UniProtKB/TrEMBL annotation:
Protein name: Uncharacterized protein
Organism of derivation: Salegentibacter maritimus
Tree of life domain: Bacteria
Length: 220
């Protein structure tokens, strides 16, 4: 369907209302799925493959139809909105779905990026920590917590990381060395993701860990 100027203005206003910038979008045309005599007007999100397609159904200019991605709980969704006002309601919902997807951190990507650059080497020794080894481990964790004060972390971020380190220190009393070191790496990676640390702070955190556990934790 060809959009009226007033309809495009309504679309513009809804984009702004949802906290997005109209400059992030562009209009395009494509075939109309259920109206072979017309075409669809698409609004594409420039920075990804997401879009909203304004279509009509059954060879009628009055039966509005929407095809869009992302959907509420599926990647691709279709909806017979029938009227223009209903179409705008569907479009407004789509903007919420879009904002959710473009603002949420990709935890799988962060996980890959974090682990990929670590170049870890952990020995397979899974014996329990001796009393002497546990004391040394505790001292290194204390050193790590002190070193974290040099990183520009928010107070609440620092508090969470320190709490995780205290818990890890406690678990070392019962776990074997290999199991504990694996838990340590997984906990730090998950914490970086949970706190949504900036790439700079995440890199500084790992560099600090490497320095503190050098020649002990076998992080290279």
């Amino acid at each position: 369907m060809k959009l009226l100027t007033s309809q495009k203005n309504s679309i513009y206003d809804l984009i702004v209302k949802n906290g997005l910038s109209p400059s992030q979008f562009k209009f395009s045309k494509s075939a109309n799925k259920y109206n072979y005599d017309g075409f669809a007007t698409n609004l594409e999100y420039k920075n990804d493959e997401f879009y909203f397609s304004f279509q009509t159904a059954e060879n009628s200019e009055n039966d509005h139809y929407a095809i869009f991605s992302p959907g509420d709980d599926v990647y691709f969704e279709e909806f017979f909105s029938r009227s223009w006002n209903s179409q705008l309601a569907v479009f407004s919902n789509w903007l919420r779905y879009l904002k959710r997807e473009i603002t949420v951190p990709d935890k799988w990507k962060v996980l890959h990026d974090q682990v990929d650059h670590l170049d870890l080497k952990i020995d397979q020794d899974n014996d329990k920590f001796s009393a002497k080894e546990f004391i040394e481990l505790t001292n290194r964790i204390i050193e790590l917590k002190e070193s974290l004060n040099k990183i520009d972390l928010l107070p609440e971020q620092l508090e969470i990381i320190n709490s995780k380190l205290d818990h890890l220190n406690k678990t070392a009393e019962d776990l074997g060395k290999f199991d504990w070191k694996s838990l340590f790496i997984g906990t730090i990676v998950n914490t970086v993701i949970q706190l949504n640390l900036t790439p700079e702070n995440a890199q500084l955190l790992w560099s600090t860990i490497k320095n503190v556990f050098s020649n002990y934790f076998l992080i290279e």
